[in-house]
Write a structure and sequence with these properties.
The protein is an all-alpha fold and 72 residues long. It is built from two helices and no strands. The two termini are 18 Å apart.
């Protein structure tokens, strides 16, 4: 994996996390709706998956940087 691709993937995951929070804020505070299953799915399941993916990508990026230092 290239470093640039990893950075794009991390940025995408951060956008997903931000959109989950904005979705919940809009539903709860703007439209004055009660909490429902869609908010729970968005803010727990998707948030956990995106956060785990970010951690995995950060580990891949640090391994890539480490291998570049050892090779060069």
């Amino acid at each position: 994996m290239r470093k640039k691709t990893i950075n794009y993937a991390i940025t995408g995951c951060l956008i997903i996390l931000i959109s989950c929070v904005l979705y919940a804020i809009l539903k709860l505070y703007v439209f004055f709706q009660r909490i429902d299953i869609s908010i729970i799915i968005a803010n727990i399941i998707v948030f956990v998956v995106a956060a785990a993916l970010i951690l995995f990508l950060l580990k891949k990026r640090s391994d890539l940087e480490e291998s570049e230092l050892l090779d060069g």
